Amino acid sequence: MTTHSLLILPGDGIGPEVMTEVRKVIDWFQTNKGIQFDVSEDLVGGAAYDKHGVPLADETMQKAQEVDAVLLGAVGGPAYDNLDFSVKPERGLLRLRKEMDLFANLRPAQCFDALADFSSLKREIVAGLDILIVRELTSGVYFGEPRGIHSDDNNPQNEGGRVGINTQRYTSGEIRRVARAAFELAKKRGNRVCSMEKANVMESGILWREEVQWVHDNEYPEVELSHMYADNGAMQLVRRPNQFDVIVTDNLFGDILSDAAAMLTGSLGMLPSASLGAPMANGRPKAMYEPVHGSAPDITGQGKANPIACILSFAMALRYSYDLGAEADLLEKAIEKVLADGVRTADLMGPDGGTPVSTSQMGDKIVEAL
Amino acid sequence: MTTHSLLILPGDGIGPEVMTEVRKVIDWFQTNKGIQFDVSEDLVGGAAYDKHGVPLADETMQKAQEVDAVLLGAVGGPAYDNLDFSVKPERGLLRLRKEMDLFANLRPAQCFDALADFSSLKREIVAGLDILIVRELTSGVYFGEPRGIHSDDNNPQNEGGRVGINTQRYTSGEIRRVARAAFELAKKRGNRVCSMEKANVMESGILWREEVQWVHDNEYPEVELSHMYADNGAMQLVRRPNQFDVIVTDNLFGDILSDAAAMLTGSLGMLPSASLGAPMANGRPKAMYEPVHGSAPDITGQGKANPIACILSFAMALRYSYDLGAEADLLEKAIEKVLADGVRTADLMGPDGGTPVSTSQMGDKIVEAL
Ligand SMILES: CC(C)[C@H](C(=O)O)[C@@H](O)C(=O)O
Ligand SMILES: CC(C)[C@H](C(=O)O)[C@@H](O)C(=O)O
After folding, report:
1. Which of residues 14-53 of B touch A (CB under 8 A)?
2. Where in chain B are the domains?
3. pLDDT tens digits, residue range A12-48?
4. What pTM did the predictor assign?
5. Class of the B1-108+270-370 domain?
6. Contacts of B269 (CB under 8 A, 6+ apart)
7. B269 vs chain A: nearest CA distance in angstroms?
């Protein structure tokens, strides 16, 4: 019988709290569906720094490379704001992305009908919204060399005497592989891809546009492809987000645009993400799953966190890493039911009332509904 | 008697159409207020390329350096999409910004009450919105070297064999001067500045944060300063934009965030901008003014363009470049009156009705109201 290996990295802030609820769901599947999960747990981010002096220990990195899937909570928090750049919590996350080569970050921005009123946008603009942002995750300005802060003391024109540098660098191969991921996903959805860059002012944007177009013309001519400047993309996301199906964009633009898109839905506490790499021996992609929300230090330890984004991230793992699509459906249905019943964590409490529950009660309700 | 020199660069698309309406306003001030404007006009963008083979002729650049203010319409359009990068319409604009050293780009995002219903956001979230984004405009990844697209043929791992590079580069001095501009502006408004970067993943972002903090601590301790990651900034702009007063950020983030902010207001056809540099001999800053909207090729030549953004840009010129604050007030009041009277270009036609007018009629109405 197959065992499904999973490395859980709760991380910082509300990460551990929401992960406790995912554990309940995993237990349910083990007990009631006879699915064997081989779950291990380790530290990442500030939590790892506190213990090891680095935001990701080598052993943890090694383990992440060996498992079928990694599930991460969140990293960072004010306690670590003044840490040196090289040991910031975020660098643990970036190391995982880079060394596992998780080049395609899938960020669905879905508006759950029961929550449409939480959006700052008008209901008619966000109701039913369902777009998927595919963000390149292992290259671009987050990783390009040269980088750093240097002294510029011998430049009398430079008050302060320092210079900060990062390099936006993309190879054609890096662009093609994430473009393929986007086209493949589009084929299973609305068959449309919009690629975003700043080809009008950046050469890396020109390369991006040309290579996405190349993949389209040579391999996916049947998918509808359009191009948009990223600033206009930000406008269009606010103006009429449902004009999009799949958006493919680079690491930095993807960071900003996917956060804006997530916020449009009013469902930030509900949004999962998957970061996928090349296929492993078992034929399934290397993968890490994490909620879109951050570590939320302001509500940490208060039982207020919504565990649904992290549980839905586990549902994505069921689907993409364990080939358990039916089980993923089951879990998603259970969450829908709980929401329809009016069960609400603090972030979901609106004028329409509902039953307020804690993080832990929400986990229990979802397991009950399974 | 002082003459006020102005170089008009209508540019492409709807640029010339909206500029015609600004001319009417200028004429009115000359005739009725005895203010002497020395207006010259020249080409920029695609229009300049068509005539000179470059998006900005040297003579035009020279003239721009000599006048009190430049007023630009818009650049770019599909006809120029396949031009070589070095002669793209946008490069004319970038040359002006760079050579005039217009480091502080002021982008107000205001929601005009009469137009609040045009926003895709709920009225209560955008009504009365009045934030000011100060975008660094002459440095960062738009200008950093090295840059370009190179062959990477000897790298067998790189399918496609090319690499695209841009460099995000900021000096401490560049950051300090735009920070000062932001703090000065904040003092005349809500006394709050929020600085946005990605200091968690980019060293240039760390330098940005440290230098803005330095200017604050040493020169503007009385202004309230906060820092936010740019991805969170995008979220917060969508969620609760009125939490901000002045936002200061770099060239690339500023491009995206200010476009998102502009779109929030529902008043894109109404938003002006000013790009300011160092003081000239007359004590006033080098300056270029332009509407936030683009060249809008889809409505070019149809009399549908809203000239208000460009006329309000001229109002900013009255205030910042000609020291004619009372006249700027007068012009802004006239525009308010016209809107209150229900006069509406196509983009402003909503369910509440109003009197539909063409670009030209809108200009006439504003002059009448003066
Ligand atoms: C935590 C941070 C490094 C990260 C990023 O910028 O990629 C986060 O914002 C995200 O989007 O996953
Ligand atoms: C036209 C383009 C070069 C420009 C930019 O990216 O700066 C525009 O988007 C703007 O914001 O003024």
Report:
1. none
2. 1-108+270-370
3. 999 999 999 999 999 999 999 999 999 999 999 999 9
4. 0.96
5. alpha beta
6. B293, B305, B306, B308, B309, B345, B347, B348
7. 13
